[in-house]
Each structure stands twice: as C-alpha cells, then as structure tokens.
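We emphasize that the prediction below concerns an isolated chain of 413 residues; any contacts that depend on oligomerization or on bound cofactors are therefore not represented. The input was used exactly as deposited, without trimming of termini.
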Amino acid sequence: MAVPGDKSISHRALILNAIASGRGTVSGLLESADVQSTRRCLRQLGVTIQGSTVHGRNGRLSPPQGALDCGNSGTTSRLLLGVLASQAFSAQVVGDESLQQRPMARVTDPLSTMGARFRSASGRLPITVTGGALQCGSSQLAVASAQVKSALLIAGLLGEGTLEVTEPRMSRDHTEIMLAAMGVRIDRVRMPNGEHRVTLQGGQDFEARTFSVPGDISSAAFFIVAATIIPGSDVLLEGVGLNPSRTGILDVLTRMGADISITDERVSCGERVGTIRIRHAELVGTTVDDSDIPRMIDEIPVLGVAAAFASGVTTVKDAAELRVKESDRCAQTVDLVRRMGRNCDEQADGFAVEGLANCDAKGFTFDAGLDHRMAMAAAVAGLRSESGVTVLGMNSIQTSFPDFTSTLEALYG
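Result of the prediction step, given as a token string:
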C-alpha cells in the first residue's frame, strides 16, 4: 500500500519554488488541509500555482488582500514568517484556535535581530509582519526545530551577509536538501558536542525545480505500529521517505523487537525512499531520549500505543516539545494510554508506560480535540481493544491524512 505524500516536503516544495526564479513542479503533493493552507497563502501573495506547477517570484511577493490564514498548520505559519520577513510590505498571519496556542517567538525573535518587525499581543498568532532588507547573522536555537531552522534559512537566503544557524541536535533537514538541489551553496557541519550548524550566504540566485514528494513516514508510522501489534499482520508500505533525520521511529521500534525490513531503497530528489515491510512481533520496553526525539517527535503518540503492548517499561524523556504541538501531546498520550488500561506515569518532559504484551486494551472513548496525530493514534489503539474505541475529533485528520480511516479499514476492517 502507499501512504500520502510527505507533509513537510510538500510545504517546503511549494514555498521554495514560490520564492525561486523560473517554474517548478511538485509531483505527489499531499492534498490535505494543512498543505492547502500553504497553497492558499502563497496565492494571496501573488504566486501562480496551476495544478502541480509553481511559478516562482524570484523572492519578490505581492502584498496580500486580507490576513494570511494558516489554519492548523504550524509549518505554514512559521515558514511564512521567514518569507515575509524580507518583503517590503506588512501582512498579518493568523490561524485556528489550536495554532494560536503554539509559540512563535522562537521564530520572530531571531528574525527581529535580522531587521524584520513583528506585532503580536502574546508572541503568538495573530502576528503582523513588516518586512524589509535583512542582515544575516548567527542564531543559536534552544530547541532542535526544523520549522524554526527553515524559517531562518529562507529569510537568510533573501537577506544579505552570512547566516549561521546552530541547533542542539540535527532536526529534519528537508529544507537543506531542497535548497542544495535548487543550486544554493549551503554548508552543514556536525559539531563535536553533537550540535548541528548550517551556514549559507544571503542573496544567492536559485532556480525552481521539479520535486517528487515521497510517502510520509509520519503517516506510515500508524500502520507500522498497527502491523507490529496485531497478530498475523504482514504489511508493505511502498515509496516511503527514509530521510535519516526522520527515521527515529523505525530505529526505536526495531530496538523494541519489531520485525521491520526495508527494500527497494533509492534516492529521489536527494531524499532516500524505499519500501517498508512490517510483520507482527512481540515488543519489549526501551528508553527514548534526546538522541532519538528530534528524529521522531511527531511519532511519539503512536509510540505510546506500541509501548502499551510491550513487555516492561518504555520511558520517553527529553520530549518537552510535545507540550507545544497541536495539543499538549505529553498529557494527551498519557491520557490515551491510561484509557487503554495501562499504568502511565506523566513526567515534565515525557512519560513512562508499563506495558502488557498479551493483554488487549479496554474499550474506551478518547477526545483528540484538534490534534490529528492523537486521533490516529487512538484509532490504532482501538484495533487491539476489547470492544473498540470511540474517537472524538476524527475530523482533525484532514490536516495530514484525509484517507486514514478508509485505509485503516481496508487493512483491518
């Protein structure tokens, strides 16, 4: 089976082609509410997008008519802040109730030092951006965040001088790969202390190009866990992105005893892609820490489901970033696991699950609110529950995986 196109790459392919020169195409683009938000905002900024073709504006966009509504998409909002920081006009960036709770100062503060101006009541959306000529410099990120890093790289590319971004550990690097493919000279260094530093020179010319979007490993993770915990499963997921900055879920599950193999591995547009085969296996508990977290932060909720069916204790730590996602995913995952009938200890930066390998979950009701990944994790848990589950908030999956329910039913209905 195939999984939908990678959401992170879909956003970036649209945005980077929009600010490049020439025309580029994006095949395999994810058709979800989040990606539609990016497409809609770019069109408001004067970008022509016809089907899969994006007509680049060579870094110069048009003032929008009305606010730029990013919906529920953190990637749209943060990357747009990086784009707008260099534009010679003001624009307002807004989002839905969930997105308004997510921290934006981590983006606006370093962009402010480059010369952009931001007006906001609380460091969160709505934010009014007044852009202009940017002067690049050095930014030391407190948290490894691909969204923040990408916003700064985009702003730096449209600014002057040398930009240097250092993060405590390497976050997903799709932006760096795509910029290099577009002709940007970009340097990347892993420091002896584990930090990751990216450097580029502002003002470079770069060309729009064709990108082929691989399957999203974050979407695949739900079926990887489902196949692992359900006896008799043998599932093939084809064309999935295997970027090493995203494959933490595969490494952690393999460490727990999962039966995962990869075939047909290849490189497409600079990204590793392959077919993942997953068969049912008995799991054991493990510890997940900051050496894993940046490479699997979005997969932690469904990892919590896997941990509930593992022997022993699985501990997740160094994951405080979970608390500022679409919901407080730390608290939400703890609630989900407890409703499954497992002991789960909530901690400041994570949680610890006491799994039961040979015991189905209880039937339960779970309210995912506006968080698509919590909704899908709960649905996977329901596949091994005594009497099924009722998941409130399933409409939220439209942001990343509109066909999730029908795909799950096709496999396990």
